[in-house]
Write a structure and sequence with these properties.
There is one protein chain. By secondary structure, the chain is α+β, with helices and mostly antiparallel strands. It has a 6-stranded mixed sheet. A hairpin with a 2-residue loop joins strand 3 and strand 4. The longest helix has 16 residues.
């Protein structure tokens, strides 16, 4: 995920900096594929399962300490905001420390607006694509929808996510995550476990 300091400007999706998609299985048609689509799917399913099972500490382990987590808002002109530093975001954490603080608040009931009674979620992932790669680091795009049950009512959230995942260590790590929530007119606060 790029930020306001990236060369291609704010709002550029991971893997789209060059403006062209690499050939399947290669980076610029020269390097062999090192991370398979199946490995990416397994990782995404595991991250979603941790949220559904409320295993937030394991979920945090999916993130690099410097991972940016950003859910831009939809501006009045129907376009996504482009800079979390100067425009409104639905969620923005500059690194994993912000996510750790959010999990602490959920676990200690310091945010009863979103965590009591405990919500139930079911995450569903589809259309997983590797959109770019540099060795063991891949840019991924996928669609998702989450069913959310609380107060005897079910809500649906859906959107598209853009991840940069580093597979070079023993366990893959998300280094950036941009979530585009397509149905942003919701009845209550949106939290990290919704997306």
């Amino acid at each position: 995920m790029t930020t306001a300091t990236d060369a291609n400007g704010p709002g550029t999706e991971p893997g789209m900096e060059s403006g062209a998609e690499p050939e399947p299985g290669t980076e610029s048609g020269t390097e062999p594929e090192t991370v398979t689509p199946e490995a990416v799917r397994r990782f995404l399913y595991r991250e979603a399962r941790y949220l559904d099972d409320r295993e937030f500490e394991k979920w945090l382990e999916c993130y690099h300490p410097d991972a940016e987590f950003w859910m831009p808002a939809w501006a009045d002109d129907g376009e996504l905001t482009r800079d979390p530093g100067t425009e409104i975001s639905l969620i923005y954490y500059a690194n994993r420390g912000g996510l750790e603080d959010r999990v602490f608040r959920i676990r200690t009931d310091r945010s009863s607006a979103t965590s009591l009674p405990e919500p139930r979620t079911g995450h569903n992932i589809a259309n997983v694509e590797i959109t770019g790669r540099a060795g063991a680091v891949v840019d991924v795009r996928f669609n998702w929808f989450t069913l959310y049950y609380r107060y005897q009512a079910t809500d649906t959230y859906f959107g598209t996510s853009f991840y940069r995942i580093d597979f070079s260590a023993e366990a893959p790590l998300i280094t950036s995550k941009k979530v585009v929530l397509k149905n942003d007119c919701v009845h209550h606060v949106v939290d990290v476990y919704h997306v």
